[in-house]
Automatic annotation (TrEMBL), chain A:
Main location: membrane
Native source species: Phyllobacterium trifolii
CDD domains hit by this protein: TM_PBP2
Domain ABC transmembrane type-1 residue range list: 89-269
Name listed for the protein in its UniProt record: NitT/TauT family transport system permease protein
UniProtKB/TrEMBL annotation, chain B:
Entry-linked PANTHER family: ALIPHATIC SULFONATES IMPORT ATP-BINDING PROTEIN SSUB (PTHR42788:SF13), TAURINE IMPORT ATP-BINDING PROTEIN-RELATED (PTHR42788)
Molecular functions (GO terms): ATP binding; ATP hydrolysis activity
Species assigned in the record: Phyllobacterium trifolii
Keywords recorded for this protein, A-Z: ATP-binding, Nucleotide-binding, Transport
InterPro entries with a match to the protein in the record: AAA+_ATPase, ABC_transporter-like_ATP-bd, ABC_transporter-like_CS, ABC_transporter_ATP-bind, P-loop_NTPase
Full protein name: NitT/TauT family transport system ATP-binding protein
Matching SMART domains: AAA
Domain ABC transporter: 15-242
Pfam families: ABC_tran (PF00005)
Family that this chain belongs to: Belongs to the ABC transporter superfamily.
Length: 288, 278
């Protein structure tokens, strides 16, 4: 008589809506960090910066369009000292944060309902898929028409850019909760509310946080894009405006700032993800 | 006095639309796994439930635990009909079913949390039960930092922490290695002798069934009914050596005798099993 020891593992069954590998790229970044990749990659990055410095100076590239890196740094310091840079960064981040925050408030409860109640998902899935596959930038004119050129349309586009990452990952997190844990919780007389709060929510946190990482990134990119198209402030506006004025030093300074923010935010989120899912950590062998 | 009365339990599973199985030469979308189970379990009794795969042992346990509704018949716990999980019942699963985001201590506290036990008392009682299973010092370990045997100890401690009057155990030691299994069997017996709760224990192992039980309930092949109830009159407290005694061997032969035909029948039925596995 064989024992059946089939364990319904976490995350095996992916729902249809989450067929895209939403959580996977995040994982790769995580393992790529801290295992020496940085020191391996550094020489090539330095070479890139060196080329950037040398090429315009030797006339390989037109310094009007491609100022040497040192000039860009000088522009950057100028922008930073005048306080202009901080102002634009602050505005962009604020827009991204409000959009992301609103997206979280909407997507997480909605994701819970869609993940838990199949009828709810059946009804809403097609609409969600339709909206999800509409570019946020294609909708910017609509947002501007509806909400005007002010803050609201910028927040709307960041909201739109992040809400689906959160929604899809919340749904897949809720669906992937080990049915055995739900059964165990029910056997102890867990109420429906406690089942959400104490079992389904913590069980789906890793998936939600992975979605949040993608969502934060996406909302920052979206706000920059929106600011380039229609704004009077923000990093995107700074980049776009510098290009129009042919102040290419400022333009590259703005782009580099963007990159730097992207990197910092990503590292913060990786750190947060590790902290929030620390219980998943390394298992060490223990005696019986 | 009878603590649990199972009368006329029948359970039929309806397959998903479009799914069919062949039962006794006929295509059907309904499978009967339990067909008229009657069983009286006395207070403080240790019952083991054996039967071939698919005989509905786990389903019966779920019905007694209030996790599954019977299609027909009732189960009474101290005279009250069970319709949902009873706070007086504890449940232990084969795959531990610990919450991976909670520490060992906090997993045990969970059982008390959902029953509304005050915070202070929760921690004290959880610590007491951890200590009872020799796990003091492991309070802050997460399940994936514990071995299988330790995880199952935590799971049993969690089930016992709320002082259940009935403990349902669904092949709790089946996933463990042989040595750990035997250690846990004797630990369970020692603790059970102290607290004297009523236990219903599903197992595939005849030796385990004999070693633990006051009475062994042998189930038939699908559709499951009670085939035979065998009294195990081995003296308590029992230690591991009892397994090599003549009496133990006699019981082993007797249980296998009761089980053999059913296992053979179940083999022919196996193609069905995915339809109602668990």
């Amino acid at each position: 008589m064989a024992y059946i020891s089939e364990k319904p593992g976490i995350g095996i069954r992916l729902p249809s809506i989450a067929a895209s590998s939403a959580a996977r790229p995040a994982r790769k970044h995580k393992t790529a960090r801290g295992d020496g990749t940085f020191s391996y990659g550094l020489p090539l990055l330095i070479l890139f910066f060196l080329l950037w410095e040398i090429a315009p100076r030797l006339g390989w590239l037109n310094p009007i369009f491609f100022p040497p890196l040192s000039d860009v740094c000088r522009s950057w310091i100028g922008l930073a000292e005048s306080g202009v840079l901080a102002k634009h960064i602050g505005i962009s981040l604020q827009r991204a944060a409000i959009g992301f925050g609103l997206a979280t408030i909407v997507a997480v409860p909605l994701g819970f309902l869609m993940g838990r109640y199949s009828l709810f998902e059946k009804i809403s899935d097609l609409l969600v898929q339709t909206l999800r596959n509409t570019s946020q930038f294609a909708l910017l004119p609509v947002f501007i028409l509806l909400l005007g050129i002010g803050e609201a349309s910028k927040i709307a586009i960041t909201f739109y850019s992040s809400v689906f990452f959160l929604l899809v990952n919340t749904i897949s997190g809720v669906k992937a909760v080990d049915p055995l844990l739900l059964k165990a919780a029910r056997s102890m007389g867990t109420s429906d509310l406690d089942l959400f709060r104490k079992v389904i929510l913590p069980a789906s946190i890793p998936s939600i946080v992975a979605g949040a990482r993608l969502a934060v990134k996406s909302s920052i990119f979206a706000v920059i894009g929106a600011e380039m198209l229609a704004a009077k402030s923000g990093l995107g506006y700074l980049i776009q405006q510098s290009q129009l004025m042919m102040e290419t030093g400022d333009m590259y300074a703005g782009i580099l700032t963007m990159t730097l923010i992207g990197l910092i935010v990503n590292y913060l989120l990786v750190w947060f993800e590790r902290w929030a899912t620390s219980w998943k950590g390394q298992s060490d062998t223990s005696p019986h | 006095m009878d603590r649990i009365v199972v009368s006329g339990i029948r359970k039929t599973f309806q397959l998903k639309p479009g799914q069919y199985v062949t039962v006794d030469g006929e295509e059907t979308d309904r499978v009967t796994v339990l067909d008229g189970v009657d069983l009286n379990i006395r207070k403080g009794e240790f019952i083991t439930l054996v039967g071939p795969s698919g005989s509905g042992k786990s389903v019966l346990l779920d019905i007694i635990g209030g996790l599954t509704q019977a299609s027909k018949g009732i189960v009474q716990l101290d005279g009250t009909t069970i319709t949902r999980p009873d706070p007086k019942t504890g449940y232990v699963f084969q795959q531990y079913a610990l919450f991976p985001w909670r520490t060992a201590l906090s997993n045990i506290e969970y059982a008390l949390e959902v029953r509304g036990v005050p915070k202070r008392e929760r921690s004290d009682r959880a610590r007491y039960f951890l200590a009872l299973f020799g796990l003091s010092g492991f309070e802050d370990r997460y399940p994936n930092q514990l071995s299988g045997g330790m995880q199952q100890r935590v799971a049993i401690a969690r089930a016992l922490a709320s002082n259940p009057e009935v403990l349902l155990m669904d092949e709790p030691f089946a996933a463990l290695d042989a040595q750990t299994r035997e250690i846990l069997q004797s630990e369970l017996l020692k603790i059970w002798e102290k607290i004297n709760t009523t236990v219903i224990f599903v197992t595939h192992s005849i030796d385990e069934a004999i070693y633990l039980a006051d009475r062994i309930v042998v189930m038939t092949a699908r559709p499951g009914t009670v085939k035979e109830i065998i009294d195990i009159d081995l003296p308590r407290p029992r230690d591991g050596d009892i397994r090599s005694s003549t009496e133990f061997n006699a019981h082993r032969a007797r249980v296998w005798e009761a089980l053999r035909d059913e296992v053979n029948k179940a083999q022919k039925d196996w193609a069905l099993s995915p339809a109602y596995a668990n």
